[in-house]
TrEMBL record:
<dbReference type="GO" id="GO:0005886">
    <property type="term" value="C:plasma membrane"/>
</dbReference>
<keyword id="KW-0472">Membrane</keyword>
<protein>
    <recommendedName>
        <fullName>Secretory carrier-associated membrane protein</fullName>
    </recommendedName>
</protein>
<dbReference type="Pfam" id="PF04144">
    <property type="entry name" value="SCAMP"/>
</dbReference>
<comment type="function">
    <text>Probably involved in membrane trafficking.</text>
</comment>
<dbReference type="GO" id="GO:0015031">
    <property type="term" value="P:protein transport"/>
</dbReference>
<dbReference type="InterPro" id="IPR007273">
    <property type="entry name" value="SCAMP"/>
</dbReference>
<feature type="transmembrane region" description="Helical">
    <location>
        <begin position="150"/>
        <end position="170"/>
    </location>
</feature>
<comment type="similarity">
    <text>Belongs to the SCAMP family.</text>
</comment>
<feature type="coiled-coil region">
    <location>
        <begin position="55"/>
        <end position="82"/>
    </location>
</feature>
<keyword id="KW-0813">Transport</keyword>
<keyword id="KW-0812">Transmembrane</keyword>
<feature type="transmembrane region" description="Helical">
    <location>
        <begin position="119"/>
        <end position="144"/>
    </location>
</feature>
<feature type="region of interest" description="Disordered">
    <location>
        <begin position="1"/>
        <end position="47"/>
    </location>
</feature>
<keyword id="KW-1133">Transmembrane helix</keyword>
<dbReference type="GO" id="GO:0030658">
    <property type="term" value="C:transport vesicle membrane"/>
</dbReference>
<feature type="compositionally biased region" description="Polar residues">
    <location>
        <begin position="18"/>
        <end position="30"/>
    </location>
</feature>
């Protein structure tokens, strides 16, 4: 009858550090043993230590820098508080993301009932930029095919004046009007928007 083993998966007790004679040592090894490195217990490393005067001078210099930074921080805090009391909004430039030129944050600054109007205006501004770029491309092709360079220069001037002009004269006033819901700012927007209209029919 077979003997009952309580754990058939248990490993046999083998000492891995025992000198087994079944594996012969390698006789054709190409690696040579490294020579022993000399060890000198009396060797010292010279680390230059600052003298007391140098430490005191550095401490004074750091203290002066710290005082200067505290003074600048207090001045900046005072200016920020003064600006906040006057009601001036500091707009951080955040659009386009790869090269921020303008501040643009419709979801967080424009009331929900006016966001659709602002998105339509923003799409209109981007459409104007696209049309003026396409105008430059089309006029460049026409110039290559034999037209004069005058129309190309006019298209460049129209792009360089039209895009910033559209942003400053009608998009930014509309953005500020919808942000504050101010009738005066809406009036400024409508004035510049109506003045701009004949420009398209020219």
């Amino acid at each position: 009858m077979a003997r009952h083993d309580p754990n058939p998966f248990a490993d046999e007790e083998i000492n891995p550090f025992a000198n087994h004679t079944s594996v012969p040592p390698a006789s054709n090894s190409y690696l040579k043993p490294l020579p022993p490195e000399p060890y000198d217990r009396g060797a010292t490393v010279d680390i230059p230590l600052d003298s007391g005067n140098d430490l005191r001078a550095k401490e004074m210099e750091l203290q002066a820098k710290e005082n200067e930074l505290k003074r600048k921080e207090q001045e900046l805090k005072r200016r920020e508080d003064a600006i906040a009391r006057t009601g001036v909004v500091i707009e951080e430039k955040n659009w386009p993301e790869f090269f921020p030129l303008i501040h643009h944050d419709i979801p967080n600054e424009i009331p929900i009932h006016l966001q659709k109007i602002q998105y339509v205006a923003f799409t209109t501004l981007l459409g104007l930029v696209g049309c003026l770029l396409w105008n430059i491309v089309a006029v460049t092709v026409a110039w290559i095919k034999g037209e004069g360079p005058t129309i190309w220069l006019l298209s460049i001037i129209y792009f360089l004046a039209g895009v910033p002009g559209a942003y400053v004269l009608w998009y930014r006033p509309l953005y500020r009007a919808t942000r504050t819901d101010s009738a005066l700012k809406f009036g400024a927007f409508f004035f510049f928007y109506v003045v701009r209209k004949p420009n398209f029919y020219w």
